[in-house]
Amino acid sequence: MRDFAVNRTSGLLVLPLVCVLALFLVVPICLILVVSFWDYNEWNFFPAFIFDNYAYIFTSPVTWATYLRTLQYTVITWVFCTAIGFTVAYFLAFHVRSQTWQIALFLLCTIPFWNSNIIRMISWIPFLGRNGIANSVLLDAGLIDVPLEWLLFSDFAVILAFVHLYTLFMVVPVFNTMMRIDRSLIEAARDAGASGWQTLVHFVLPLSKPGLMIGSIFIVTLVMGDFITVRFMSGGQSASVGRVIANEIALLQYPAAAANAVILLATVLLIVSVMLRYVDIRKEL
Amino acid sequence: MAAPHLELVNVSKQYADTPAVRGVNLGVNEGAYVCILGPSGCGKSTLLRMVAGHETVSDGDIVLAGQNITTLNPAQRGTAMMFQSYALFPHLSVRDNVAFPLRMRGVDQADRLTQADDMLERVQLGSLSNRFPAQLSGGQQQRVALARAMITTPRVLLLDEPLSALDPFLRVQIRSELRQLQRDLGITFVHVTHSQDEALALADQVVVMNDGEIQQSSTAFDVFNKPRSEFVAKFIGGHNVLSLGDRRVSIRSDRMSISRQARDGLFATVVDIEFQGASVLVKSQLDDDVDAVVVQLSDERFFDQPLVVGESVCLMWREEDAHTLAA
User: Fold this and answer.
1) Which of A209, B297, B307, B308 would bridge with B302, disulfide CB 3.0–4.6 Å?
2) Does residue A47 sit within a domain?
3) Structural domain count, chain A
4) Would you say residue B232 lies in a domain?
5) Has residue A28 been placed in a domain?
6) Structural domain contains residue A29
7) Is the pTM of this model over 0.90?
8) Which of B199, B225, B251 is the last residue of a domain?
């Protein structure tokens, strides 16, 4: 009897959250799933139950090429974000001794985020452009004779913007994990004869794994789903899965866009579930 | 007499403005079990960490086995430290934890794992070598930490409050195991503690510290029976410090007696009675002193003629039990 009352209370307590998630997460995804089986023509789309959308995606060579390109972006961005993010977090957590400075420098890292993503992205354009700051500096310094063309509207620019936008998503969780590493472990490692490098490899790195994994999930999901950065920074010359979906929406091909979205969602979920197999992040949450 | 195995010469530690350790001189013989005893903040842990090399020395020298180790790395000193929280590596198995210091010394895998297993056998953890630290009880973790510290056969093992994380029952048991192990291995132990019982039970040499300085360094027997200063007498416990004429004396609580018939002694009023099992503590207040005087009576003696709170009594002792303290 009492158990029942307790269950009912807890049921009521989780009800608001269930409603929010159902309304804003489950229902939209279900809608997308349903629409992905609909049919469409040049000016309209209508209920049906056909597999043509999926069949087209899987048979089109464009799909494979875009997925490959998107994965490429993801992997390269991940490598740079991880390397930079880990280094910054390590510096903040282990080399900055006073807590005041730690907090101050940490906030400094977040300042760019007071601005919108798009603004931060666009602000690269005057820097990287043909007559941009980077090229003028290099020309003036005599390091190059003609302006570098590949700085802007290229894969380089796309990756640069991604790394700039998303490194903090790696810094924050890794810093958080590092701050939880018992400092006496580091002393014990030194006591056992480990050098600074050995301590990093044998202790800091493995013990930071949960944070690295959380940051990696952020970066993978953000880059896989991105369409605006790729469009702006590649000058429309590169494709990504997100851009394909955005184009289809622009052409009112909603069922095709929905099918693409379902496949992208499945791909990202697959990648994340594989990542979670290797690291237990539950203790971090 | 031979030079001490471990010697601290005028060792000081200065933090910003506050001195943590002031000019400590200490000699420790090889194979001795030394307890550094003192209240929290007295500098005992800082002193230990300076010997271990985890804290820089502001001034003075540390000499171990004839070698000045003041500025060496922790691993070059021939010391090993056992941390208060044990500091076991959570992502390594028990065996890998114990083998780790050997790994850092370049011992090959087969060899170091054999040695780790031997050491784990020694601390009776042979069957748990594949577990991870989180799967062990507090007492077992403590033994792993001990095994890891001893695997390199250090010249001196430094223990920072090794028993304080254990529950009282286990503490007494592990305490005797620690002493047994030290005797078997013949390694010099320097053990920091704030527990008087621990120091008296374990140590060949007790070093009492207060306010960054050594108050007394002698055998456990002497620290208890001939405390040098009022601080030592009060900190070690079981003593009353009284003013007799122009001198301060300490008298062990169990060497005092209480009489109802006023004779020649100190007059006092009983303010509290505490039953301890085998003995009874009678607290009484002198007219002219702020501290209560505690007399420990055997239960037989107390219940022969039980006292009550509020009673006027006379406190007595034999002259040879009154130990004069340094000023």
Assistant:
1) B297
2) no
3) 1
4) no
5) no
6) no
7) no
8) B225
Each residue of B298-319: pLDDT tens digit? 888 888 888 889 888 888 888 8
Q: What is the span of the domain harbouring residue B289?
A: 240-324
Which range marks the domain in which residue A160 is found?
61-284
Our CA-based measurement puts residue A132 at a distance from the nearest CA of chain B, in whole angstroms, of: 49
A-chain CB neighbours of B91 within 8 Å are 206-207
pLDDT digits (tens, 9 = 90+) for B257-273: 888 876 677 888 899 99
> Tens digit of pLDDT for each residue in A81-90?
999 999 999 9
Q: Which residues of chain A have pLDDT under 70?
A: 1-4, 281-285
Same domain, B221 and B246: no
Choose the mutation target among A97, A184, A191, A207 for the interface with B, i.e. most B CBs under 10 Å: A191
Q: Indicate if ipTM > 0.85.
A: no
State whether residue A191 sits within 8 Å of chain B by CB: yes
Candidate from B75, B84, B85 with C-beta closest to A191: B75
